[in-house]
Amino acid sequence: MTYDDGSNIEPYVKAALEKKATAPVILDVRGLTSIADYFIMCSGSSSRQVSAIGDFIKVELKKQGIAPLSIEGLKEGHWVLIDYGDVIIHIFYQPVREFYDLESLWTDAKRIDPATFIN
Description:
The protein is an alpha+beta fold.
């Protein structure tokens, strides 16, 4: 799906959802911050699953010629942050996600329905 600014977040969302990431939230943060256009947040039920989701996203997007600028937290598996420039993916171990409640910091951001990307 391409948005009015020409961005295509579909490969990022699909990569996260293919590895059974739970509770996906997609935020359009354009105009709210200069660090990214979109945040994708999702969860895993264990630190091992969080790391596996992060690894899978990295490999899947690399196959499509999309390389991250940086990756944080992959070994620990509590909060993995993958920075693709315009898109930042946050993968949380569920209790860590609840503790930081990052979504509440971005209440002004437009939410994009993840179901839009499911075939």
